Please model this.
Amino acid sequence: MKVSDILRVKGGTLFTITPEDSLADAAKLMAEKDIGSLVVISHGLVVGMLTFREVIQATVRNGGSFGTTTVYRAMDNGPLICTMETDIDEVRRMMLDRHARYMPVINNRMLMGVVSFYDVAKTVVESQNFENKMLKAYIRDWPDEDKAAQA
Model:
């Protein structure tokens, strides 16, 4: 299964912000949209990722307030990325290795979407459920050995 399969089911709604925006505005947008991440875009290119983790860390560094902190000062400027063709197992491994919860999907330098750890876990569980269902149906329809020998 590929990342493109997740995005096809998930849909294409994207939330972005610029490095120059304030951290307070970013947090407000994340709260309003009930999202855990924003892709940081500058001049049409992905330059970073801002998640609730970075927002909290920046707020703590600033004595418990946003102050005048910009997204640029708080964002992860080296986020993990994947492509539409990246295999789900590879995405899962990369996310686990880096403790990443969100990963931008890039195709020819263009942002195609964001895959979350939840999206990956949901896909894996649904795939396993389907496989289990098929195996149980196969076992249930297994020919009886005595009947097969008589035939």
Residues 3-117 form a domain with the CBS-domain fold (CATH 3.10.580.10). The mean pLDDT is 90. Residues 117-140 form the longest helix (24 residues). Strands lie at 16-17, 37-42, 45-51, 102-107, 110-116.
